[in-house]
Queue: 3 jobs
Job 1
Amino acid sequence: MQIREIIKTIEKFAPPKIAWEKDNVGLQVGNPDNEIKKVFLTLDLNHQALKTAIKNKCNFIITHHPLIFNSLKKLNFSNDEKSLLLQTIIKHDLTVFSVHTNLDFAKDGVSFQLAKQIGLSKIDFLEKNISSKLKLVTFLPENYADIVLSELFNAGAGNIGEYSNCSFKTNGKGSFIGSDKSNPKIGTKGNFEIVNEVRIEVVFDSWNIKKIENTLLKFHPYETPAFDIYKLENPNDKYGFGAVGELPKSMSSNEFLAHIKKNLLLDNFRYTIGRRKNIKKVAVCGGSGAELLARALTNNCDAFITSDIKYHVFQDAENKILLIDAGHFETEVFGLNVLFKLLKENFGEKIEIILNKKSTSPIKFFNN
């Protein structure tokens, strides 16, 4: 089995097109045509993680944070850490792949896994993306509608939330006059024709537009199909920022702080007090999500957990919401769980998947 088969499965779950535009997700180095041996999952790729992957004979490494984020102007194999990592990767013929902000923004991705780790239920996005969906409308003879719809579904159209093969059909009449150069499927060129037709409507992801168009043109019976594509502005159910949910029961602030320390395996963390004595509704954002503070307040959350919070953001939150900075690594690492599960379910019988159990965080805490 080739590495690209696993990449295809990952990108179906977390499409690269939903990633932050300045991110560098996807293939970092290597050959996706190589036959896979074992898979190694890690938040970051440092020398310790790379050594573990090689020791376990893994030739496909999946990271959350991209190995190559900024442009590389040179490779110095004498003392530059990034260059030395790349040298080792190439020497051992490894392939490295990153699934970063596309995993952050996907449903059941990083923030959803963080929410599950602290026991939240009724989980949804804290802020949904404006839709990346488009709608295709086309017109077909009645006996071709189901055939073309089936092909459009196979090409990826018709997915809404947890439902697939979604469409709408309306009966009507279409008219046309074919020129001398035309070759109509129905009727005669030069004549004014009226045909019983079906209008069909399906939605699809914007990054899939070429595939949908090509499928329509391939299977539509008309010489020149009539179709429209609309941009949708409604919120997207599959992609967004952060997550929000509810605890099974209310906790006091101190109980909640202890709960977070235990469930996120923390030695310590920073926080500021909120205005409520009891915590029930909680917002989270894996990684750097302080910009979602206003959204957490608007959603009437009792607490908000994220990382990389600046001093003045703590000031803005004080006495309004219990705001916790639990650490960048600590709020993202559970996102690897969904990748592990995804690969286990799809490839577990064919390949071994190894999850890095050691911290790759560069941040250490001094305790005297």
Note: The longest strand covers residues 192-205.
Job 2
Amino acid sequence: MRRDSFSWRTHRLPCPARVVRWGHYGAPVLLFPTAGGDCEEAERHGLIGALGGLIDAGRIKVYSVDSVAGQHWVGRQHSPEYCSRVQNLFDAYIHEEVGPLIRNDCASDIEIVTAGASIGAFNAVATVCRHPDRFRAALGMSGTYDLSRYLNGRSNDDFYFSSPLHWLPNLAEGWQLDALRRRMVVLASGAGRWEDIGESWRLASTLGARGIPNRVDDWGPRYDHDWPTWLEMLPQYLARLA
């Protein structure tokens, strides 16, 4: 399996940018790590291996980034305002730097599928919601979609505009909402240990109220908030979305 890595300095992040790509051809998939993860997390946990059939067949190329914003949220070493700022800048980094890198690597203006688990699911969905002109579908697995728990009761504009649960209900009619209504968001979750499928249903309600196509897939109590669940989920969904 072909594997390449990219790194550069960016003013949008408090650390160097890093991207790893697996595959040689196919639909581009941007995979977001869990909260504390890095761009190689998916490989270490066997997720890239689980996608090996799709990658080797040239159906998908998988790209992954460091969970810069997620690491700030769960580290609790910075103020909620600073973490919110990093989250908003992380979105700009994905749109302005990672997206162009993927399209250049594919030598195409192709639209990108996003995916992720836990806080990675938040980033996957938020990216499509904020940039439906460049990203065409999102798969959120075992999603953590309401990050307001990290704010200590102090909301701010950076957080508001980063969180689909908060800004989507107030999004005015226009090109962005029109484009979102031509996209798809899949929210898959188990109902086992450490899962809260209620977060997926709440986001689905927010999306549905604005006419954005989505669905919630309940995998049942045998599936926990853990890597074995995501190793089973991701290949099945990407085989349909890619």
Note: The chain is about 40% helix and 20% strand.
Job 3
Amino acid sequence: MVKKVPEAELLEALFFGHDECKKLVALQEMLKAKVGKAKQEVVLLERNAEIRKAVEELAHAKLVQALSIKPKHERSDAVSAVSKETVAALEEKYAESLGEVKTVLHDLQYEIVRKRAVKEKTRLDGRGLTDVRPIECQTGIIPRAHGSALFTRGETQAIVVATLGTSMDAQRTDAISAEGLEKTFMLHYNFPPYSTGESKPMRGTGRREIGHGALAERSVKRILPEKNPYVIRIVSDITESNGSSSMASVCGASLALMDAGIPVKDAVAGVAMGLVQEADGIACA
């Protein structure tokens, strides 16, 4: 039996949860009306209109052009160049307010991206809001491994390897009770600096590796056979990243398990999306 929920049931659960949240909000509003204090007003910091105008005149058109570049690193370099050029041009006049100049530059980038998504229905790389990056899948890329896969989606890529072992290879952990001392399925996720074009020391496992690995592990664990005689370790190495490398690991892990000959119950894939919101419209991107 595959432990998965049909989409219709998931939507029903979400709406049910939303209705229950409304009851909690109503209770909180009632308590606030009876004994609550007035809500503290937060005064928003207003941008200097003169600085805003100066930055817009110098950088807006150039930022629009820079943010239209499709390759991630080229786009990042172009935006950085526009920002440096703008700061240098305004450095003498606004020597005491360079921090605000940089903040306005940052705000302009977000406004351009939001407008493109909400008004023009396109993303930074020119795709529509419902378009998926090009996907390429390969299996058996490492001949001596039990199972392996290369999953590429746009500028995100994962090399995923599945290794099978006996009960002697189970991961053993200390616990107060005897339950859960042996783990027979593990998925480890590695995100080296070069995957985002960085050069820095590779130290111990961080929160990202632990969190993304656990997320992918829970996703893939559900498709393993009930009676599995093997200890299975999956390792996902991210070679390139431009969003949703954890979901690339899920896709690659599913392929690697099938390449290893594990009789999985079903295929599993992951996709991620964001939300761009403005007062006059909402768009996924």
Note: The mean pLDDT is 87.
